[in-house]
Design goal:
Blueprint (H helix, E strand, L loop, with lengths): L1 H34 L7 H12 L17 H6 L1 H10 L10 H12 L6
Helix pairs in contact: 2-5, 4-5
């Protein structure tokens, strides 16, 4: 009976540690994005060059694979999917965005994905 109580206590402590550590890292990531978010992030000057250099490449977003992210309308219409893919790490395929580029993409989407 004593072993059962110790096992439950250990489990409760371990679960608490995991929950606390996950929530702290999530809060930090959210803060980092919003702290560097420029609501006037430009599609033509910032977002499109990031997509062209990171995503619109052979084997990724090209005519033979996924939709090319090379114009405003396509990117705007897929903004929710792009955000989900960036946040989950599925995009960019086989690499990661640097913090500045990731923040710029998410900021642009979160601020209405304007054609600017």
């Amino acid at each position: 009976m004593k072993k059962l109580h110790l096992g439950l206590l250990f489990f409760a402590i371990a679960a608490s540690i995991i929950i606390v550590s996950c929530s702290k890292s999530s809060d930090t990531a959210t803060t980092a994005v919003s702290a560097t978010c420029n609501p006037n992030t430009s599609f033509s000057q910032t977002v499109l060059p990031i997509l062209n250099s990171t995503c619109n490449l052979s084997g990724c977003h090209d005519p033979n694979n996924a939709a090319e992210l090379n114009n405003y309308q396509v990117v705007h219409d897929n903004a929710a999917q792009i955000k989900a893919s960036v946040v989950s790490g599925r995009m960019p395929k086989g690499k990661t965005f640097n913090a500045t580029d990731k923040n710029a993409l998410l900021c642009w989407i979160d601020n209405g994905a304007k054609n600017n």
